Amino acid sequence: MKIVALAGGVGGAKLAHGLAQVLPPQDLTVIVNTGDDFEHLGLSISPDLDTVCYTLAGLANFETGWGRADESWNAIANVKRLGGPDWFNLGDQDLGTHLERTRRLREGQSLSQVTRDFCQAWGVDVTVLPMSNQPVRTIVETDQGDLAFQEYFVHRHCEPQVKGFRFDGLDQAEPAPGVVEAIQSADAIVICPSNPWVSVDPILKVLQRSTVQMPRSIVAVSPIIGGQTVKGPAAKMYTELGIQPSALAVSEHYRGLLSGFVLDEVDADLAPQIPIPTLVTNTLMKSLTDRAALARAVLHFIETLP
Ligand code: FO1
Questions:
Q1: Is any atom of ligand 1 closer than 6 Å to the C-beta of 50?
Q2: Which residue ranges form the domains of the chain, and what is each CATH number?
């Protein structure tokens, strides 16, 4: 079964990794949000792409989910000592990724070319594609003004109250090469348990700018479990936007798009309120085994869909 997974950062990367463990590499394409990308210290940083690629390569920091395992922090400590910005934690190995990405982008290579080469170097055998080669920048509209995503997320610790979102550059963005082709030849799309507002919506909005025909099976896995997010501000965003955070709210967010919805066992009582087929299973991916188990369960669920 050919699968396209839509993924943001840490939660998305975990399920993408599970899918990569159970599918032949030629049957999985991961399309990754680039709305979180930004320029920092003169470098082009693509946090979600790196999180997905490091995770698939087995190089990710297992505790944080982002950045590299066995990392050292000498460069950023020196930036701090010199009076530079140190709020975005760039490890020494990770910095190598950003230096080389920046060099290649400045040479004129596209983000998808760079991503393909990096995946090859890291031994990632599934296809990982940025959603677009053109810059799309997620802006979080808050009570403290409009904030670039990493400014809101990392620098201000998601503290400002969210009023809405904007995706600057969307009007000029096209799906990256390979994105439309992967979706057209896919049997199903899996929307990973990533933040619907700021990780999945940017990808969907870029796809909407093309005339791509979506496959009949589109399944989303809820990133909200028991009213809370495993990681990140999704639940806080729902609350601030006047919506009670729940798996039900996530299913409604994707209303009209999905043919199936996956929610956690702790939310089993919400399943009857969801008007499409549901799978109730353990969605909390604490271990590598959990990732593969959830991936297997999602694939079996897709096979049962009409
Ligand atoms: N997230 C943090 O909460 N704090 C950081 O200092 C931080 C640094 C960082 C460096 C490289 C990278 O690829 C990701 C990093 N992240 C950090 C994660 C990232 O900003 C977010 O998880 C995503 O943008 C949200 O999907």
A1: yes
A2: 3-304 (3.40.50.10680)
